[in-house]
Amino acid sequence: MNEIEAALALFDYAGKLVTYDADVRQPEIGRWQFIAARDGAMQLYHFGQALKAINGLLARDLSIAKHVKTKLLRDAQTRFDTAFPHWHEVRQGAAHLADFSKTPDRVSGHAAPVSQIPFIEFRGGDPNTPIYAANNLHGCTYSCTVEGELSFMI
């Protein structure tokens, strides 16, 4: 089992405990899903960075590149970026929560318009009111706001 699979397994296991076992202390178990989601964000980032590093190496070293099926590598990069378009931003939000919320100016810099955040019930007012959403888990969607945009992974 690799790290991404382990994070998914923990997420699913904790979700089943919260849903079906009334004797389990819910707040602690519920936090396990956050831990798993954050770790999943980190592991996706590591994988994305590894793909970038491989592509960079191949661009610099043609003696290695001639032994690699570059179309398969390009296809893997495209599939990864399509499946996880916010992988970099979500990792930034997960890894830098304290940095992003250190000062009111930093919070403002990472806030996004409330109308862009689908899991917040918006009841009127200015839809452009900024809100900083950090370390959010709504169902199976982990999200955060980074540099004024909502970033998420499922």
TrEMBL record:
This is Uncharacterized protein. It comes from Sphingomonas hankyongi.
